[in-house]
Design goal:
Layout lengths: L9 H10 L11 E4 L1 H22 L4 E10 L6 E14 L9 H17 L3 E8 L14 H14 L7 E5 L1 H7 L4 E6 L20 H8 L6 E8 L3 H13 L4 H4 L7 H15 L22 H39 L14 H24 L3 H20 L10
Parallel strand pairs: 1-3, 1-7, 4-5
Antiparallel strand pairs: 2-3, 2-4, 5-6, 6-7
Amino acid sequence: MEDVNYSYPDEAVQAIRNQKAWMADPKYFKRVKVSPSATIKMLAHGQQGVEKGTSKNGKPLEVMGLLLGRPDHQDLNSIIITDAMPLPVEGFETRVIADDMVVSNYMIALGDSIEQTRKERFCGWYHTHPFDLDGTSHCYLSNTDISTQLLWQNSEDPYGNPWVAIVIDPLLSLEQEKPEMLAFRVYPPTFNPPANETPDGALIREDNVRVQKWGACWNRYYKLQIEHFMSSLARETLDRLNNQMLWQQPFVSAPKVTEKENIAAIEHATHQVKNLSIGRNRSGKGMLGGDDGPDDDYESRGASFTAGHGHSGSYSLAEQHICSICTMLTKRALFCAPSSGNEKGLKQGEFTSMICQHLLASSAAAANADANAGATSANATIMEDDIALAQAIAISEGVHAIPMEM
């Protein structure tokens, strides 16, 4: 079925371009289907920007490129991305702008070459956000990104060529060993989305939470679901590799809890938590409660952003380490022989019991902190899953169920 994405049915695609159904619906497109080739090229380009920037001045560079594809003639609410072309554009901190004459000439020459060799058109652009590695995604559209995307949409959409933007977090992609990218389209200036609706469709009233995750213009664009596809031959080859060799990788890879990058992330999160006290406004009220006066608005908003960012990053980092500890326990249960009763060592089950007690205590403390800070129900659900997993590991190791008090 996915092999159809590699074909180009001229008549069907041209009929979709002529209809231009997306012009009547600001949220017409729901999905973006990306090929493995395009994904690898975008990630490799983003990593090149990170290495180039850090080697020069210690600060990663943002990079930019164009996307090649077409509307999906079977799934009308989808855009298919078949390839990615890097552009000679670099910048810092949401300042990736393609307005240089050299870049413009390069894009024109590249477009002429594509027209002679490919049936697809340029249907979008991508760029990277290589910001701090704090465990949270930095895939969003900045003010500059929104202006760029709106300019492209106004230029391409009316002529049967819908335009999409993809933002990549190369540092988080490398950290979690899987692509961290999101796709977006911008609302027309005349369209007003529902109140408090964020790009992912969630209704969030706290302004600091919205700005932290989606940027200052969180209500001017929306997110499209990204799906990855591959040919049947490539899928069969990958399945064979998984069945014969790659299945061993999770068991031999080192848990991230021991990596230097996570130690730095812990220090960063700790620094943010320690600095939460600066968020108290001049009236003496905490940043998580109370009304702010007219003169305190800017200060309180910045403090709330710091608080939300520190809390979210700390929670995400803690969740990663819980998973790492559980991975170590699983490996120990599968590959390590039971203890022979050495008095100086831990007997069978004691190590697991100690770790599970630590997990439950950490989870309870985090849950209480979340409750005081007004955590969402989603965070509570994740915490319950972590506790349940710890209980399950304890039982599998022969340890009695550990009572949990919240």
